[in-house]
Amino acid sequence: MDYILTTNELTKTYGKYNASNEVSIHVQRGGIYGLIGRNGAGKTTLMKMIGGLSRPTSGSFEIHGKNGETTEQMMPKVGILIEAPGLYPNMTAMENLTTKAIALGIKDKKYLRGLLEEVGLSDTGKKKAKQFSLGMKQRLGIAMALVNQPELLILDEPINGLDPQGIAEMRAILHHLCNDRGITILISSHILDELSKVATQYGIIHEGRLLEEETKEELFAKCCERLELKTNDISKTLEVLNMMGFSKMEVKDDAINIYERLNEGGAITIALAKENIMTNEIAVKTDALEDYYFQITGGNKNV
Amino acid sequence: MYNLIKMNLYRMSKAVSTKVIAIVWIFLTLFNFGVMKIVVDDPFNIMSEADKATLATSSVASDLIQSLFVSSNFLIILSVFVVLFANAEHKCGFDKNLIGITNHKWKHALARWISAVIGMTVLMVVSSLIYLGTCALFLNAFELGSLATLAKVCGIVYMGMVTFSAIFFFFTTLFKSSAGGLVPSLIISLGILFMIEKLLDFLFNKVFGSTDYVPSDFLFDSKFLNFDMDAGRNAIIFLGVLCLVYTVLTVGGSMLLQQRRDVK
Q1: By the 8 A CB rule, do A139 and A177 touch?
Q2: Which residues of chain A have pLDDT under 50?
Q3: Topology (CATH level 3) of domain A3-220
């Protein structure tokens, strides 16, 4: 697997509090890695360490296979937007970009104008950043993170507080950056539904620990719709289902989960009755990403 | 480093606070001239000979420069300028865009301080020219005096101000807030620390008896604010060493803090 970023038991401790506890994530190149976790789970702490803003208490990370001292060589290829965008309120969008560009020795104004176009802020003119809406500030924050032409973009809660249109715009920008420019994105959010629309890989973090790391396919397989069937004889039931042509199914605990032809519950019941198999329960069930998150974190619904 | 200094100068040129501070200082410079005009020339014949004797002040260029800069007015302006400039990047979170992706974080602190010194230098040069220019044109008693003395005084004053800027910069970096930087800086600028140091000298003499040295001999602000510009070569060298030590310690401390600390 081609990983652009891997962390090795990355830990950050404040006094006795472990904000990040031996977290090891593996971010595939060219994808969008969604870091899921409630407020205070340790997402920002982890991202700050990877982004060079915070010194790990222990552990290490590799970017492009470089670690230790050599990681610093790769940092100029990382774009960071942590929490609120860091903007000078009395400067325009272009002036804010110019400020960072000067520090990096970039003189190409056309390139900077292109960045503003990419995030939909090319027509802001002399409007000061303090007059921007939250969505505009977030987009300018992303443009700022793109100034140094990063290969890895770290975005901490970029959709937090945005209205539905702002969220849709942000989603489009993320897809564009990932698909058209090939930038790998590490994004955190506690809005699971939104994250599920963009991410290709997921890490679930809770109380500083990484609980699970899965691809989109693996996660959605766990969360998808299914027909849950409970009978008095599971082995016979499987034979009947095989005869009916069902193949995508699994036995889990005392139930059979069927992942196809979900509208054929009635036919299954009749077929089982003909074989003297008693149907105790049959229902279409779905685990939303949110339900799955609560299930593995053992938490309540305040993510 | 060069790019970082350029960036800091760019943001300085765009900052509202820089413009406000520059206007206030130019206004105070002209106000200083107005006071000098009244005290020295007495154009409205409002002062008695006794008042004139009490307020007697020199109108030689070197003394004018010293009175303009070695004053609470300029130190307050300088402290506000340095503190606001040094903290602006952290206050708006702009530092998060850059510090993580640069290899040597300490360079940011050094570049910020050098830029603040450049800003201060421009402010001092412009206000000196305005002050000496208006005095030369409109102050009847104005004397240019010795150019060597003028250069010496300008050098000492500038050296002192660079050191003050480093101290103010250090407090701002240490406390990571404008308020945290301003409080100790104003305590120095308003002469409160100077009084505390005099008290320290008094206690020192009480405890150890009369000695050749007192603590304030080694405390930069006491030494500089009390410095006799006509002092000899050794005294100037001692002041220079003191300035250098304080500047290196405070700027070095700021760089170390920047390198070691997490960005919030």
Answers
A1: no
A2: 301-303
A3: Rossmann fold (3.40.50)
Residue type for B82, please? V
Question: Using an 8 Å Cβ cutoff, are A35 and A186 in contact?
Answer: yes
Q: What percent of chain A has pLDDT over 90?
A: 17
Among B7, B16, B93, the residue with its CB nearest the CB of A99 is B7
- Band (pLDDT 50/70/90 cuts) for residue B54 is low
Scored b (16 or more CB within 10 A) or e, A64-84 reads beeeeeebeebbeebbbbbbb
**Residue B188: what pLDDT?**
84
Separation in Å, CA A59 to CA A49, A50, A281, B83: 10, 11, 49, 36
Kindly state whether A88 is in contact with chain B, defined as any CB-CB distance less than 8 angstroms. yes
**What is residue A303's predicted lDDT score, i.e. its pLDDT?**
42
Where along chain A do its domains lie? 3-220, 225-285
Decide: A101 and A110 in contact? Cβ < 8 Å. no
For A78, which residue in chain B has the nearest alpha carbon? B101
Fold identical between A3-220 and A225-285? no
Q: In CATH terms, is domain A225-285 a member of 3.30.70.980?
A: yes
Distance CA B195, CA B69 (A): 20
Return the pLDDT at B52. 66
**Do residue B260 and residue A55 have CB atoms under 8 angstroms apart?**
yes
Q: Using the 8-state DSSP alphabet, how is residue B70 labeled? A: S
Report whether B173 contacts B201 (CB < 8 A).
no
For residue A1, the SS3 value is coil
**How much is the pLDDT for B146?**
84
Four-point Cα dihedral A290, A291, A295, A300, nearest 10: 80
Taking alpha carbons only, the member of A237, A234, A238, A236 closest to residue A247 is A238
Which residues have CB under 8 Å from A6's CB, separation 6+?
A: A24, A25, A26, A27, A61, A62
Top residue of B14, B96, B112 to mutate, by most chain A CBs within 10 Å, is B96
- What pLDDT was estimated at residue B213? 72
Write the CA distances from A8 to A62, A63, A67, A85, B254, integer angstroms. Answer: 8, 11, 10, 28, 31
Specify the pLDDT at position B207. 82
Domain ranges of chain B: 2-190+227-260
Cα(B212)–Cα(B200) distance, integer angstroms: 15
Closest to A158 in 3D by CA, of A119, A128, A100: A119
Range A215-220 contact pairs with CB under 8 angstroms and sequence separation of 24 or more: A219/A289, A219/A292
**Which CA distances in Å does B189 have to A263, B165, B167?**
81, 11, 11
Instruction: Look at B21 and B192; give whichever has higher pLDDT.
Output: B21
